[in-house]
Amino acid sequence: MINQESQLKLQAYLDGELSAPEAAEVQGWLSREPDAQALLDELRNTKAALLGFEEGCRLPESREFFWSKIEREIERQTEAPALARHTSLSYWLRHHFLPLSGVALLSCFLGVLYVESGRSAGQFGEMELASEDMGSYTFRDHNEHITAVWLYNHGDDSKSIEPSSLVSAQPE
Amino acid sequence: MKIFRVVPIWAKVAFCAGALALMCQAQAAQAETMRLEALLVWGTDEPQSPNPKHEPVDADLARRLRKLPYKWKNYFLVHREVAEVADGETKAKISMSKRCVLDIKNLGTNRVEVRLHGDGKPVSVHTETLPIRQLLILSGDAGNETGWLVIIRRVQRLDSPPPPLVKGTN
């Protein structure tokens, strides 16, 4: 029985891949082992049979045309990076400008909205009284959306306006 | 167009949303004419006003006034004025009574400046944000345990779309 390692060595011997000492060793082994010699003969026959059936590759076009195609492909691949550099601006515009402009528009809107909301919500109103003798209380009800101002006069100066004079319930 | 086929969908959505938002903002920022209502109201505990021309204020206004720290139970409408004030313009000399006059200026972005005059002399100036539903109330003592209130509020403009109809319940 020939093990797998010996079979592989025999195959290498048949293909001429062994060094001279190894080949001499295999030849000695073949002279002693008839099974090995039989296997070598079988391998040699198989190799001869396969060589007879091997067909050459036939090109559908002429040799010059075949190689010119390969040359063009090589040239195309070397020019591709340069072409990519030329189209980088349009690529950038397509892939970044529109998305970025959309984000910028949204940011602008949110910014304006924030400023406007701060302007309207952050200001509680202002009040200015015409006379130092007048005072006021301001009451804000945010749930009812009411700002109520109570005006009063705490001075004795007759030049100031008396708020109570603004309205009369009596028939006019 | 070929360029729009290669743009990612999120970018298209962001672009459209941004453009739409800016258009809405631009429309909102347009100069707006305010339609304002000024009411002179008398607050009292009396069930009836001595002036037969005075009517109780509307129920919603009365409800809101009763939530304020005013002490009166009843509120009667003495006088009502409606004015349309364009953006940046002033509606001057809105006469609420013989002695009470208002100047109202539309400052834009829902803000108003109200100048209160009594007997021809300035009393106070108020600057306030006045969106729809907001009330600005200027008030004071009217003697005999009563009070006066000048109420300024926004009302729907005549050319604005009507509010949605609400089906009454029986």
For this entry, give a set of tags.
heterodimer, A: 172 residues, mainly alpha, 3 domains, two-stranded antiparallel ribbon, elongated, disordered C terminus, B: 170 residues, alpha+beta, 4-stranded antiparallel β-sheet
Report a brief summary of the structure.
The complex is a heterodimer of chains A (172) and B (170). Chain A is mainly alpha-helical and 172 residues long. Chain A is built from 5 helices and 3 strands.
Describe it:
The complex is a heterodimer of chains A (172) and B (170). Chain A has 172 residues and is mainly alpha-helical. Chain A has helices at 4-14, 20-32, 34-53, 63-86, 88-121; strands at 126-129, 134-141, 146-153. Chain A folds into three domains: 4-53, no CATH class; 57-123; 134-165, no CATH class. Chain A has five helices and three strands. In chain A, strands 2-3 form a two-stranded antiparallel sheet. In chain A, a hairpin with a 4-residue loop joins strand 2 (134-141) and strand 3 (146-153). Chain A is elongated, with a radius of gyration of 52 Å. Chain B is an alpha+beta fold and 170 residues long. Chain B has one domain (34-154). Chain B has helices at 2-6, 9-28, 59-66, and strands spanning 34-44, 55-56, 74-85, 90-95, 100-108, 111-118, 121-129, 135-143, 146-154. A five-stranded antiparallel β-sheet of chain B has the order 2-3-1-9-8, with helices on one face. Chain B has a four-stranded antiparallel β-sheet with strand order 4-5-6-7, with no helix packed on it. In chain B, a hairpin with a 4-residue loop joins strand 4 (90-95) and strand 5 (100-108). The longest helix of chain B is centred in the N-terminal third of the chain and has 20 residues, at 9-28. Chain B starts with a helix and ends in a 16-residue tail after the last strand. The model of chain B has no long low-confidence stretch (mean pLDDT 83). At the A-B interface, helix 5, strand 1, strand 2 and strand 3 of A face helix 2, strand 1, strand 6, strand 7 and strand 8 of B.
